[in-house]
Amino acid sequence: MRRRPSLRLAGRRPFALTRGDEEDDEMAQVNQRAWKIPGQRAKRKAWGFTAQISGRQVRRYKAEWTQDDAERELASELLQGKPEEPKEAPITLAAAAERYLGLKARKRTIAEDRRTLEHLKAVFGETTLLTQITADRISTYKAQRLATMRRIGETERSLTAAAVNRPLAVLRHLLRLAHDEWGVLERVPKIRTEKESQGRLRWLTRVEATNLLAACRKGKNKALPDLVEFCMFTGVRRGEALALTWDRVDRSRGVVRLELTKSGRRREVPLSSNADGVLARRWTPDATGYVFGKRNWNAFRSAWEAALATAGLEGFRFHDLRHTFASWLVQRGRTLKEVQEALGHQTITMTMRYSHLAPDHLRAAVAVLDGVLSSPESEPTKVSAQGSAQEPVAVSGVSAN
What we know:
- This protein is an alpha+beta fold.
- The protein has three domains: 6-80, no CATH class; 93-180; 203-401, Intergrase catalytic core (hpI Integrase, Chain A, Orthogonal Bundle), CATH 1.10.443.10.
- It contains 13 helices and ten strands.
- The strands form three sheets. It has a five-stranded mixed beta sheet, with helices on one face. Strands 8-9-10 form a three-stranded antiparallel beta sheet, with no helix packed on it. It has a two-stranded antiparallel sheet with strand order 6-7.
- Helix 6 (206-218) runs antiparallel to helix 7 and helix 7 (224-232) runs antiparallel to helix 9.
- The chain starts with 5 loop residues before the first strand and ends in a 34-residue tail after the last helix.
- 27% of the residues are buried.
């Protein structure tokens, strides 16, 4: 007796389709995939299906599909009994790179992505077809990267796990787009990345911050001390501060609007009294353009390095001003949820790196259990899903004093 292939659909009642003379059950699943985009916090989502047809696994996902679209495509595949075939001819790595960059035209890290793709084209070859970039070739490339040494001062060091992983992440994203959305790659080779450490966490003490600002004021670049103080008391990234224009400053509401952030989302940043003081010093009735005069960091680099030397700060990076802002908030009793919102983190995972600076919040959390057994008549206080009531974040309360 002929057996009919069964079809499992996510969120829908299963139904069966009769397909030709096929004798074996063929299982299929419609679902929605989500994957992380390198350089962005947001995840990309796409509806599609996975099916076993004629002894081969067929996977097809497209960002523009709805669940109904995916089900129709799957039903068509099962009825036709044809294995997945790319809709377009294979393309070269160079062509895929151009297509990839076209999708990232407004991405904040497009310049970095372009450099990474140039590196990958030099390694694998511009005219190499995507189908020729196999798991074996990728594994060989990764091994070469791990063996690469770079000179830092008088010493040589191997590349960090992060430096090895970044090109691999871009390559993996490109290949997945070629498979899931462009239809030019039948399968994506497995790419294994190195485990990365949590990363360094360096912040300034009050004395160090005072010395750094004093050193900046002694330099020739008069905008540098304002830039440093502004980032120190808002936690914004260097690129976000340099790109800030006066039309995005709203001192009446005490906020600045960031348009091009790392997460790709617009957000408002509250101004502390220190940050507002910086804007007050720089504002003029006819102020237009960039708040700090120049958008290119090269205009500040030499003055910054000189200020670090004068202040005696070794191994301190500009990005550590953001760590300083977050660390000061935590050390002054703000919750990690508030710090997450102040930094603009989409998830609290990144913010948790500051949790060790606030052990008191754990002691306070378990302290609510004190006396539970000795007072059986008392009912525990109910809290909301968001946790105990907290006063709203007040970044303006942060001070170096």
